[in-house]
Every structure is written in C-alpha cells, then in structure tokens.
Amino acid sequence: MTTEEKIKSLREELHHHNNLYYIQDDPELSDYEFDMKLKELQELENNHPEFEDKNSPTRRVGGAVTKNFETVVHDFRMYSLSNSYSKEELEDWEKRIEKAIGGKVQYVCELKYDGASISLTYENGKLARAVTRGDGFQGDNVTNNIKTIPAVPLKLKGDYPEKFHIRGEIVLPYEGFAKMNAERVEAGEEPYANPRNTASGSLKLQDSAEVAKRPLDCLLYSLVADSLPVKSQFESLEKAREWGFKVPPEAELKNSIAEVQDYVNYWDQHRHDLPYETDGVVVKVNSFDQQDELGYTAKSPRWAMAYKFKAEQESTRLNKITYQVGRTGAITPVANLEPVKLAGTIVKRASLHNADQIEKLDVREQDIVYVEKGGEIIPKIVGVDFKQRDPNTPETEYATNCPECGTELIRNEGEAQHYCPNYNGCPPQIIGRIQHFISRKAMDIEGLGGETVALLVNANLIENYADLYTLKKEDILPLERMAEKSAENLINGIEKSKEIPFERVLFALGIRFVGETVAKKLAKYYKNIDALASATVEELIAIDEIGGRIAESLTDFFASEENRELVARLKQYGVQMEMAPEELENLSDKLADKTFVISGVFEKVSRNELKKMIEDNGGKVSGSISGKTNFLVAGDNMGPSKLAKAEKLGTKIISEDDFLKMV
Ligand SMILES: NC(=O)c1ccc[n+]([C@@H]2O[C@H](COP(=O)([O-])OP(=O)(O)OC[C@H]3O[C@@H](n4cnc5c(N)ncnc54)[C@H](O)[C@@H]3O)[C@@H](O)[C@H]2O)c1
Ligand SMILES: [Zn+2]
Fold first, then answer.
1. Are strands 595-599 and 631-634 parallel, antiparallel or unpaired?
2. Rounded to an integer, what distance in angstroms lies between the CA atom of residue 319 and that of residue 348?
3. What is the mean pLDDT of residues 634-657?
4. What does each C-alpha distance from 343 to 171, 267, 340, 657 come to in angstroms?
5. The predicted structure's pLDDT at residue 375
6. CATH topology for 502-584?
7. Does the domain spanning 595-662 belong to CATH 3.40.190.80?
8. Residue 2: which residues within 8 A CB-CB, separation 6 or more?
9. Among the atoms of ligand 1, which is closest to the Cα of residue 284?
10. What is 3-51's CATH number, 3.40.50.1820, 3.30.457.10, 3.40.190.10, 1.10.287.610?
11. What's the CATH code, domain 313-388?
C-alpha cells in the first residue's frame, strides 16, 4: 500500500468508527484502539502535508447532526480535546505552553466525565436552548429532552449575564444504569452496553417522557459568552455553581504539570468511588487571557489536554464456558475465569452475551482473555490473546441443548439470544417465573422469598404461580426453616396479594417483553384480561409504543391452553383481572382516534401529565408532526420547525388552555 492509500484507508476506517460511536451509539473499537489509529493518521498527515484533506477525522469533530431534530448553529464552536495517554506527552505539552506564554502557567484539573456533550444557552436567567455538539459547528436541538433532567436548572439565581452558554456532559450514573438494565433483563430485553452510549442514545429519543424516566445527570464545566464576569476557568466554575449549576467539586488549581501528575495518579485510583464514569483528567490553562493567546488547532484548543486513563483491563485464563437459563428461557453464556483482581474486586465470571459475541471474539476455553470492567454489573471479555493460544484448541461450539433440562435450544430469526422452549418443564424457568410473580414490583407477596419458592417447587408443592393460592399452612410447615409463624405470614401474604391492582398482575404473569410500563399501558387500554387475551397482533401494534415483538409475545402467551387455564384459575381465586372502578374514573374515549403532538413548555401541567391526560382519554401522542396529526398542543418556546410543519400541513394548533377545555 502506498502512503496515500494508507492515509485514505485510515480516514475511511475512522469515519466508519465515528459513525458507530456518535450516531449509532454502538462502537466496535475500544477508545484506546480508536485513539491509536487516529494518532497514526495524524503522524502520516504531518509527514505528508501534500495529502491534506480538511474533512480528515484529525481535523473534524467526529459527531454529526441527525435528521430527527431541528439543527442549530452554535454561536461558539464546540471543539474536541487533544488527548494523551502518557506522562511524557503531558510534559511535552507543558514545555510548548510555557514557551508560547513565556513563563510558568497555572492549570485547572477537572475530571473527564464520560457521557454526551451538551451546550445550554441561558437568556435572562432562563434555559432557552440545549443543543448537542453535533459536528462542532451545528448540533441537534434537544431542549425538550434536556428539560426532563432534574440537574439542569430551568431558572438561575444570582448575578448571571444576560445571555451566555454553558457546556457540560450528560451522564448516566452507575446506579441508575444498573437499575435500568435490571428492568430490561426482567422484561426479557437485552441490557444496554454501557452508561456512555445509553446517555448519548437517550438524548436522541423522540419521546421526552421516555427520557424523563432515565436517571440522567448533567455536569457542567465551561462558560462561553462574548463577555463574562470572570477572568479564569477556576473562577468560572465557582460562578456557575453560584448560579445554580451542578459543577462537580473535584476541580483543583495546580501550579505545574508535576502537580497535575499527582492529581492524575490520585484519580486513576479513586475514580471508581465516584457515582458516574470518568475516562480521564482534563487539564486546562487557567487564565482566559493566556487561553486566548494560545488559541486553537483545527479541532481542539491548544490550552487544554485530556489525559486518558487506561481502561481497567486484566488478562486471565478462561477455564470454562457455561450457560445460564433465565426465567424467560433465555440462555446466557458465562465465562468462568481464573480469579483475577480488577478495579478493586476479584472477578471470577464474565458475561459473553450470546453466540454472536463468542463468534466475533473467537473466544475458546483455555484461552488467555482480556477482561474489562465498565459500567456493567458483571465484567466483560473484550478480546483474546491469540499469541498465547495453543493451536490445537478446538473452536467453541455453542450449546445445542438446555443445560438444565436437555431440551434442544431454539433461536428466533433476528434475535441474539438462544432460548430453551421447554416453558413448562424447565426448572429454572418454572422457579424463575414464580419468583418474578411474587417479586416486589409484581405481586409483592410478603413472607415469601425466592429461596422458599425453590423449596416449594422442589418439594412438588407448587408447579406454577396459580398453585400458590391453593397452599395450606399444613402443607408448608414441614419445609426447612418453616415455623408456625412464618407459615402463617406466608399464607397471609398470598391472601393479601389478591388486592394487587390488575396492571401489576399483568406484569407479574411474566409475559416476555411485557415490563412494568407496557403492562400499565395494556391494562389501561384493555381494562380486563379477557379483552387483552382476545386481541390480535394487528390490534395490539396499533397501540402507541407496542411493537411487533411485544404483540407476538402476547398473542403467543394467550394462545397456549396452559396459560389460559392459569389465568382462569387466578381469576377464580380472586386475583384482580380487571381495572378497579376508581382507576377507570378519569378514563374516557373522548379523544379516541385523535393524534396529538406536544411541543414546548407548559404552565399548568407538565408535559408528562399532558401526555397521560391524552392517553387516559383514549388519544394518541406522537413525537413528530405528520399528516395523521390532529392537534399540536403548543407551549412556550416551541421549536420553530414544528410550528412551520404544522402550518404547512394545516394541523390544528391549540394552547394548553384549549386542551384542558377539551378534556
Ligand atoms: N471507540 C470508538 O470507536 C470511538 C470512535 C470515536 C470516538 N471515540 C472516543 O471519543 C474520543 C473523541 O471524542 P471527542 O471528540 O468527544 O473528544 P473527547 O471525548 O476526547 O474530548 C472532548 C469532550 O470531552 C468532554 N468532557 C468531559 N469532561 C470534560 C471537562 N471537564 N472539560 C471539558 N470537556 C470535558 C466534552 O464533552 C468534550 O466534548 C476519542 O478519543 C475516542 O476515545 C471512540
Ligand atoms: Zn430448559
């Protein structure tokens, strides 16, 4: 390959990975691998200026605007950061800076929060706009989504300038991320890969109510305006805090790069104590005058440098691949590792996700593998040390039969996971379904825990959740650790669960892909189990947010004789199989067949309340205006493109008050 070809091929490769990372939120390379390729390209370009290209990934921010939001041109360009992975690079940077400035320089050290960049514009103390970085020149207007984040102040306090921008990062703290994933797994869906991509993906959702459910946070780090009441980065952080912004307290002033190194070393160790992901330290020249003097390269400020932490990675031997069966029958391959210390904990197992992942990594038993810990609950294998592989190691053959019941596994087209189809005879599925049924968010049966469920099943006292309601105290007393009192509590708990409202019963049934939210939606829509059981796929997918996958899973569930019998028995025992009259009270069909788009901010009710009112009265809410839209409910600060589109299509535009009168 000639140098020119090499440069071209690297550029193409990097464009491709930028797209996966910024647009699809689904990267294939680690950041380190990406940065090394970028560095290689940079060096080639430096040595061969004749092949210059102003669209090269070395000269442009990797993101882009999407078609789904209004495009906004940034008043001040949003740059990337130069990055370094070694102390030597930091020292070289210090030398360059001191030479340009002609003396010693003060630095601010901040943590590099790993999420999605955002620029917030405030006018007269009010949030006017929130825009993604996009390609650095223009971004997506995601104001409605950002407004759902509690950490973003809608109104400021103190002596703020009339108009300014503040930049920061939208992050998803570990705890919320783990919770979201637990819920997804519970509903039979695939977990999200990591907090960064999930945060970034959340901003691009069309439905702000969906964004509101995600526990996002917003950390701010930089003020931008024609004129600011401060003269340095450190002061600006303090000011931003005074005005009501969430500025993390870890930022510190340093007098040399040697001091910066101590900060880096400290946080390389302690970053795991923080509630959110960080991937490095950002070092900035403190004085704004000196920043101006240093200026910018094509892509980043010369006055700042990101020092990136190496991902916590270890290598260890993979002893054995085993397979776990979930309550929905989904099979998860697990790597059983030679124990290794990683990010402060001993790791013995790592997830291999599914058959595709195993094939992609070409991972085999006895391989030396690289294990990384990101935001995931359980660590993952990111690669294999092929140099250390014995050439005779056989390729991994994915399990063909269920490890628990021996049934042949199936894999539906388009799905990543294999399934054990032995719904009624596979022990972990039987036990898992009953454990799900009694869990806190479902039937919340007091006095009954997951282990007792397993005991009850193994003692042949129950085979399914309906059997719970036939249990008698005498039956369970002989069980291990069961005393008079605990047996009584258990029976009382089961009795009390008959009061649990229909929407939660529906969730408790454990139908694949029917999580809490979907169950609520269906309960409201169909009002009782018989109506739902006789719904067709076509009817189901006509409901907002119910897709083909959910619809098919529902019709499959009710097509089974056994399931229908279980439901009939539950009903007979007194479990709620319809909405209570008081829950139906504010439900009407007033808005049936009407589609609404909500835009802007409202005074009397929140967007979420507005949405609920529409749905409670039989209407539909859609994210974008089309020929099918009947009404645009317009609030303050509504996006001009929406308004233009509504006017063009002749959509009826109504105010908040008009709407409230309608219902
Ligand atoms: N894995 C992949 O395939 C892939 C692809 C593209 C990019 N990437 C990663 O993304 C990086 C490039 O992305 P980038 O251009 O967003 O640069 P960057 O993430 O390295 O640095 C710039 C960004 O850092 C963020 N930031 C966080 N804390 C900050 C703070 N305290 N002060 C200032 N900024 C702060 C800001 O959002 C800013 O836009 C690469 O280094 C690479 O690691 C990876
Ligand atoms: Zn099985």
1. parallel
2. 10
3. 85
4. 20, 13, 10, 55
5. 52
6. DNA polymerase; domain 1 (1.10.150)
7. no
8. none
9. 32
10. 1.10.287.610
11. 2.40.50.140
- The whole-angstrom separation of Cα 320 and Cα 294 is 55
Ligand 1 atom closest to the Cα of residue 79 is 39
Quickly tell me which residue has 């919770």 as its tokens. 179
The more confidently predicted of residues 24 and 486 is 486
Query: What pLDDT digit, counting tens, does each position of 186-230 carry?
Result: 676 777 878 898 999 999 988 888 898 899 999 999 999 999 999
Is 169 known to sit in a ligand binding site? yes
Alpha carbon distance 237, 156 (integer Å): 15
**Residues of the chain with pLDDT > 90: what percent?**
63
Nearest C-alpha to atom 35 of ligand 1 is from which residue?
A: 112
Closest among 510, 515, 518, 564 to 540, alpha carbons compared: 518
* Cβ neighbourhood burial of 433 (10 Å; 0-12, 13-18, 19+): buried
What residue has token string 């059997």?
A: 467
Q: Which CATH superfamily is domain 427-499 in?
A: 5' to 3' exonuclease, C-terminal subdomain (1.10.150.20)
Structural tokens at position 28: 């294939």
- Ligand 1 pocket by C-beta < 6 Å: which residues? 17-18, 20-21, 27, 29-31, 34-35, 61-62, 80-81, 83, 110, 112-113, 117, 133, 169, 221, 282, 306
Other C-beta atoms within 10 Å of 155: how many? 11
pTM, 2 dp: 0.65
What residue type is 462 in one-letter code? Answer: I
How far is it, in rounded angstroms, from Cα 9 to Cα 3?
10
pLDDT at residue number 346: 84
DSSP 75: S
Asked whether residue 402 is marked as a ligand-binding residue, the answer is yes
Confirm or deny that 308 is annotated as ligand binding. yes
CA-118 nearest atom, ligand 1? 37
User: 174: helix, coil or strand?
Assistant: helix
Give catalytic status of residue 441 as yes or no: no
